[in-house]
């Protein structure tokens, strides 16, 4: 068993939904990584793909719903997210025909109704990725494509290691191992067109800038069992000193291990 599957190691869905709902208004201002990852995922879509209906799974503020609508103007778009606050933000901006509150592990869609499921940086919050893949297989038409990006172990490792040096508590969200993505995709009943892990680093002038961005994204520590209460000044000073050991000429690095997967339902 990996740390991802350990009892009590995951944030519950209500906490995730509430955190991202609160972040809806600030999310786009700090979502540079999310934009670049989504653009890279779009580039991995099969060029011959011409969906009649697409699903933006974990649509967030709807940025990529609008991109998909422009890319496939004849298609009907559905935008789905667990966070009601994100949907309230996205709906007036358009892009999709329908905006739906729903769970990737139990899609409110009938069998074989979509040609493309696009999901960028959402499924890392799903405890049961097997169910995500099973639901995608069910909802896709034969020949339909699931394209997802996610995060795996090694993400924010600099922050994790710095906290470990300070107090040993888990202050950073846990993620699956890349090997788990490999195994689960291989066992999904979908044809694997591509699966890749790619490191991407952001740089920050100081630790405060990084933690502000994580909070604005709604992606700060959502682990159950995380330390409660305000973090003491002495611990923050110790954290800053520990993180400074990672400083590079461009600034303090925050490395994301991004997983890109493209799978197709057999004909």
From TrEMBL:
Keywords for this entry? Answer: Biotin biosynthesis, Methyltransferase, S-adenosyl-L-methionine, Transferase
- Pathway involvement of the protein, from the record: Cofactor biosynthesis; biotin biosynthesis
Reply yes or no: does the keyword S-adenosyl-L-methionine apply: yes
Q: Does the keyword Coiled coil apply?
A: no
Q: Organism's domain of life?
A: Bacteria
Q: What class of enzyme is it?
A: transferase
**EC number(s) per entry:** 2.1.1.197
Catalytic activity as recorded in UniProt: malonyl-[ACP] + S-adenosyl-L-methionine = malonyl-[ACP] methyl ester + S-adenosyl-L-homocysteine
Q: Please give the InterPro entries that the UniProt record associates with this protein.
A: BioC, Malonyl-ACP_OMT, Methyltransf_11, SAM-dependent_MTases_sf
**Which Gene Ontology biological process is one annotated for this entry?**
biotin biosynthetic process
Give residue ranges for domain Methyltransferase type.
55-148
Gene Ontology terms for molecular function:
carboxyl-O-methyltransferase activity; malonyl-CoA methyltransferase activity; S-adenosylmethionine-dependent methyltransferase activity
Which residues fall in a coiled-coil region? none
Q: Which family does it belong to?
A: Belongs to the methyltransferase superfamily.
Fetch the NCBIfam families from UniProt.
Answer: BioC (TIGR02072)
Job of this protein: Converts the free carboxyl group of a malonyl-thioester to its methyl ester by transfer of a methyl group from S-adenosyl-L-methionine (SAM). It allows to synthesize pimeloyl-ACP via the fatty acid synthetic pathway.
| The protein, known as | Malonyl-[acyl-carrier protein] O-methyltransferase
Q: Which gene encodes it?
A: bioC
């Amino acid at each position: 068993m990996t740390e991802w599957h350990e009892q009590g190691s995951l944030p519950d869905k209500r906490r995730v939904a509430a955190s991202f709902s609160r972040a809806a208004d600030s999310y786009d201002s700090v979502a540079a990584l999310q934009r670049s990852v989504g653009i890279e995922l779009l580039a991995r879509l099969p060029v011959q793909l011409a969906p009649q209906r697409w699903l933006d799974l974990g649509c967030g503020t709807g940025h990529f719903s609008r991109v998909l609508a422009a890319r496939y103007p004849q298609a009907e778009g559905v935008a789905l997210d667990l966070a009601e606050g994100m949907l309230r933000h996205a709906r007036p901006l358009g892009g999709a025909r329908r905006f739906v509150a729903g769970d990737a592990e139990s899609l409110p869609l009938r069998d074989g109704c979509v040609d493309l499921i696009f999901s960028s940086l959402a499924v890392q919050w799903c405890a049961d990725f097997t169910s995500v893949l099973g639901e995608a297989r069910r909802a896709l038409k034969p020949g339909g494509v699931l394209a997802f990006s996610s995060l795996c172990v090694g993400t924010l490792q600099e922050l994790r290691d710095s906290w470990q040096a300070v107090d040993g508590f888990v202050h950073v969200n846990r993620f699956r191992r890349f090997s788990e993505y490999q195994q689960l995709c291989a066992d999904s009943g979908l044809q694997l067109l591509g699966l890749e892990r790619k490191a991407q680093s952001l740089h920050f002038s100081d630790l405060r800038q990084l933690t502000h961005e994580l909070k604005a994204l709604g992606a700060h520590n959502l682990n159950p069992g995380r330390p409660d209460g305000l973090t003491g000044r002495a611990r923050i000073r110790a954290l800053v000193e520990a993180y400074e050991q990672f400083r590079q000429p461009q600034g303090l690095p925050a490395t994301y291990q991004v997983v890109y997967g493209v799978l197709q339902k057999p004909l």
